[in-house]
Amino acid sequence: MSGEPHFTHALFDFFGELDLNNDREWFKDQRERYLRDVRDPIVKFITDFAPRLSGISFSFTADPRLIGGSMFRIHRDVRFSKDKSPYKTNAGIQFRHERAGDAHAPGFYLHLKPGDSGAAAGIWKPGRDELAKVRGAIAISPSRWRDATSREEFKHRWDVAGESLVRAPRGFDPEHPAIDEIKRKDFIAWASFTDDEICSPDFLDEYTDACYSVSPMVEYLTRTIGLDF
Q1: Is 2 domain-assigned?
Q2: What is the CATH number of the domain that holds 27?
Q3: Is 4 inside a domain boundary?
Q4: Cα 2 to Cα 99: distance, rounded to the nearest angstrom
Q5: Exposed/middle/buried for 121, CB within 10 Å: 0-12, 13-18, 19+?
Q6: Which of 2, 14, 46, 98 is the most buried (most CB within 10 A)?
């Protein structure tokens, strides 16, 4: 369903300039621009995506609240970083599982950054227990994971991504036929979008279709760690 785009190139222009002027004084001067071109369009996108997400699963949330909602804060946590730049140079939106409260929960994600935007889905850096459950499930029945990540609608848009161990994790046979999957530290998929695609009036439809096509993988992971889908 076409209409006015949720995002415009003004969003990417803002982040491009922020990358060159990452300080509080510049951001203070550009705050109204940030609200108009970045924050408010993201809030509207989250609101409009909510009923579509319910069509995929009632267990995931699209929360438009400014604090504690689906939109990540633009402020960086610099406490343990040598880079003290105060702001992120991208926008992040996560539609996470209702029973989990952080970025490591199963979910769908949207990343907005000039020239490097995309969607992600799955579990990023799962906790020890969740990681053990997924690895164990793949070891017992590799076909279920492969079925979820080898469908044509999945391969048309998505690639399985994330970090992996160099060696087989402890307790797993290095010769297991699915050892490359078992070695994964993340169980995520990534789909790239161009700036023009993000700014298209059809992007909400495109993102919805992408989430539908990756949902079998998300369902597999969600149920494997003991959550409802």
Answers
A1: no
A2: 3.30.930
A3: no
A4: 33
A5: buried
A6: 46
